[in-house]
Amino acid sequence: MQKLAPFSLAQPPAIFSGFPQLLLHGIRTSANHHDFSSTRPFPDYSPKKPTIRDEEVVHQISTTIKLRRSEPLVQVLKPIETRFRADHLIWVLIKIRRDFRLAMDFFNWARARRRLSAEARCIIIHIALACKKPKAAYQFVREFVSECDNDVDSLDHFVDKVIYTYKEWGSNPLVFDIFFRVLAEFGMVEDTLKFFERLLNYGYLISTDSCNFILVHLVKTGKIELANKVFNELAEEGVCWNTESYNIMIHGVCKSGNLSDGRELLIRMEANGCSPDVISYSTIIDGYCRCGELQSALEIMKEMTDQGLRPNAFTYCSVMVVLCKNKRMVEAKELLREMMNNGIVPDSVVYTALIDGFCKDGNLREAYELVDEMKQRVMELDVVAYTALMSGLCRVGKMVEAEDLFQEMIRKGINPDEVAYTSLVDGYCKQHKMKEAFHLHSQMLQEGLAPNIVTYTALADGLCKKGEVETANELLHEISSRGMQLNVCTYNSLVNGLCKAGNLEEARKLMAEMKGAGKFPDAVTYTTLMDAYCKLGMIEEAYNFLKDMLDEGLQPTVVTFNVLMNAYCASGRLEDGRHLLNWMVQKHIMPNATTYNSMLKLHCINSDMRASSQIIKEMREMGVQPDENTYNILIKGHSKARNMKEACYFHGEMANKGLKLRASTYNALIIGLCKRRRVAEAMRLLEEMRMNGLIPDRDVYNRFIDLSYHYGDMELTLELCDEVVEKCLTGKEHQENSYVA
Questions:
Q1: Any long-range contacts for 614-621 (C-beta under 8 Å, 24+ apart)?
Q2: Could you give the CA distance from residue 725 to residue 706 in angstroms, rounded to a whole number?
Q3: What is the 8-class DSSP label of residue 738?
């Protein structure tokens, strides 16, 4: 056991903040379940009697140290030092016991020169408590317990002496609580409980506040079952657990994932007369949040407010973090405002969680508004917040802005970590800027940072997307030879690269290699291969991969089904697509707009607009909202079928939602209006299209050139002729002549 430094009052232990209340505790004989009828009294103290010569030495020492002025003890006791024996200490302490400072100084002088007995050590503890110095007593107990690792000063012997000296040297029961706490802090569980039982024999019950220390130790070390056993057994012995006790246990069971036990403890504490406080509820809320059970967390939060308790910063932070992870950013922002309205100032952890959530949601405007709020509150962004912003910028391809943030972070003295570097590396790789990505990789190494598997996966993915699959493979073999374990994402990047290169046989071999390396293919692996086979028209092969997934116990995602759905519909196999949709629903996989768009596209190609209306109705019944692609498909379909009323209706609905038409959709809508001789509306759409930077196709230009010439508007005719030559006849036209799924 670690030996502590010599005793000093310079740094009192913070653990004593609750000890003044404990001075009120005495020997308990009520409000408990232990039978004290068979208890025995504390033993009488009978110290060894000094000889006449000893009495002379003791008198000389006590007189000398009492009469000294500013001289140090070392100096005034120098003449007596050779005659001093360890036994003299106790006899001197008897004479100076009312002066703690003097007693402590003499004790420290004595133990620097002689080996002191356990009895003498216990006496100085009692003296400290008698002089109302509990912090000093605590420090002495810690020192002495830490040294009880030999036969002479064994722990049992020390306990005997604490009890033996108790009656004569102060009779302050706080000594037992201090001793109990120290044993608990040292993790000596068995000795702590043995000490508890021994004191019961003398009719003394350790205070609840002290008993909490053993619970804290057991919970901190993850011994939840033992903590629960101690909790129940000490209650049977008469310990009346308080709110803090229950909170410790709630924290323990929630930490181990037993949230139902946490809720049971909440009910139990109320039944035992303890009122749950904000910590009780917040601990359970945090437990549910960590397990991703957001709804349960929100229910407990409501229950808490119904009890008249206001959430604290920890409560709000727990819920907001999980809301952000679930991309429920509107609710997270509302909770932030509620928190601030309740007078609770959010800290950097809360702001960083929200910034990260908005960045991952693609809402950089909201993220930067929060950054401005932080600056107004004089809060500095840390490496986590900077990394979240950089990742958000990289995600939307704003690499210049991301690089500027990276340099700003360095200028402010914030050292980028592996995650910060990797976010930039990934951003450059996604834009196929491999030179910049590898430069950052080299910079990481120069800074003494170790690129991790995520960094190398990003690099391999970037190389694969540029068609450099062999280079990516060499890179990964190199890092693998250095002992770095490839993960599923890394293998998936290579599989994707091989599929894009059309090398499906190698992709399948790599899939088998994954299994051999103990990295089993996931839904992404299978979906990537299915997509590659579908694009080659090998739909049955892709379907077999879906069956293999299910045989392996993997749950297909909506993307997996969408790949197959798109292939069926693109090849005109609408009935197979409908069967696949029904199968999805049976598997409890919610279809999304992309799922329905594949079917919608086929109906529009076949000009079956009644069937397309049925698809829209079915989508809305399933709670699936049409996306931008849905509207583009519908408008093009209705325009080509000359259903201009419906086409214009969907165009208006699309505009109200802030969604944008594609060039091909504008073209179809304009031509449809022209065919219905609604030229003014068509002209307005043409102007809108040109203002949005989109280029009409040659058919649209030809129609408006003819119309402007027919109406004698030569200026517009010549302008359109110049434009069509520039945009359509010089190879600069923007082509988008097909439905996009």
A1: 619/593
A2: 15
A3: S
Does 236 fall in a domain? no
C-alpha of 117 from chain center: 52
Last residue of a domain, one of 174, 206, 238: 206
Residue position matching structure tokens 């809301």: 323
- The full DSSP string for 5-20 is PPP-SSS--GGGGGHH
Residue 228 lies in a domain: no
Report the alpha-carbon angle 89-95-97, nearest 5.
85
Where does residue 76 rank: exposed (0-12), middle (13-18), buried (19+ CB within 10 A)?
Answer: middle
CA angle 344, 290, 227 (to 5 degrees): 100
- The distance of Cα 262 from the centroid of its chain, to the nearest Å, equals 20
Taking the whole predicted model, whether its pTM rises above 0.85 is answered as no
CA distance 318 to 401: 31
Residue 113 in domain: yes
Q: Is 624 left (phi over 0), alpha (psi -120 to 50) or beta?
A: beta
**Would you give the DSSP letter of residue 415?**
-
Token pair, residue 172, equals: 């302050």
The whole domain housing 192 covers: 1-206
d(CA 602, CA 613): 13
Tally of domains in the chain: 2
Rounded distance between C-alpha atoms, residue 534 and residue 528, angstroms: 10
652: CATH:
1.25.40.10
| Per-residue model confidence as pLDDT tens digits over 538-582 | 999 999 999 988 888 888 999 999 999 999 999 999 999 999 999
pLDDT in tens, 106-144: 999 998 888 888 888 889 999 999 999 999 999 999 988
CA distance 609 to 268: 63
| Residue 645 included in any domain | yes
Among 206, 240, 269, identify where a domain stops. 206
Q: Taking a C-beta distance cutoff of 8 angstroms, is the pair 695, 665 a contact?
A: no
CB 445 within 8 A of CB 451: yes
CA-based radius of gyration for the chain: 39
**Secondary structure (3-state) at 42:** coil
Residue 290 burial (C-beta neighbours within 10 Å; 0-12, 13-18, 19+): middle
Read off φ and ψ for residue 739, nearest 5 degrees.
-65, 140
Q: What is the DSSP string of 466-510?
A: TT-HHHHHHHHHHHHHTTPPP-HHHHHHHHHHHHHTT-HHHHHHH
Q: How far apart are CA 274 and CA 98, in angstroms?
A: 41
Selection from 566, 483, 497, 565 nearest residue 525 by Cα: 497
Q: Buried b / exposed e across 351-363, counting CB within 10 Å, b at 16+?
A: bbbbbbbbbbbee
